[in-house]
Every structure is written in C-alpha cells, then in structure tokens.
Amino acid sequence: ASSSTYRSSGKMNAKRIRRIKCYTPFCPWAFPELDHKESFYFVGHYLGIVDPYFYRMAFPLKMTRWWEERVLGNIFFCFDGCAQYLTSPSAPYLIASTYQN
Q1: Distance CA 94, CA 101 (A)
Q2: Closest Cα partner for 79 from 30, 41, 52, 51?
Q3: pLDDT tens for the 101 residues of the chain, in order
Q4: I need a surface site. Which of 1, 39, 42, 53 has the fewest CB within 10 A?
Q5: Residues in contact with 79: Cβ distance below 8 Å, sequence separation at least 6, in sequence order
C-alpha cells in the first residue's frame, strides 16, 4: 500500500511542478547573461533610484499573479538573484527596509 501511495503522490507532485510559472524581474540592461535573473535595483542601475518603495516596479503586477493563480491554476514564483547585492555596502540596509513589513 505504501508503494502505491508513493507512486500516486509522486505523480501529483510532478503535475504541480509542471504548473509552476516563474517570473523574473525587469532589468533595464539588455545583456543575455544578466536578463531574467537580476534587477540590479539596489545597486543603482535604475537611473540611481534605490528607494525601497519603487523596488516593486521591477516585478510583475499583482494582477499577473492573480491571473496565474486564480484563472490559470499555476503556482506563481518570482525572484531577484543579484550577486552585486553581496558586495554593495548599502544593499543590505535597503533590502531590509523593503521587507520590514
């Protein structure tokens, strides 16, 4: 019984994984190796703007998330993986103030 349960749960998990819709942040730089993973927002590449309030402009609209989850039934996932945040002296403070709530 346990092996059939494992097989059926594996099928269900595989089905859910196929339904994950990953969105990436907007990047004003058009470099193939940087596009679709990094926004560079907190290191000033948006014309020097680093205000935490405007960080949301780098990501899809709330309507996009609603559409993917409620209408299409997908799992919505979005990330910003910028390596320059690790070496920027101001990025940790700005990121912390963005996510304080």
Answers
A1: 13
A2: 41
A3: 555 554 555 555 566 556 777 787 877 777 777 667 788 888 888 888 889 888 888 888 889 989 988 998 888 888 887 888 899 898 889 888 888 76
A4: 1
A5: 22, 24, 25, 37
Count of Cβ atoms closer than 10 Å to residue 27 Cβ = 20
Q: Which amino acid, residue 44?
A: G
Residue 23: strand, helix, or coil? strand
Q: Which residue has the tokens 């942040």?
A: 25
Q: Which residue has the tokens 């749960």?
A: 9
Which amino acid would we find at residue 35?
D
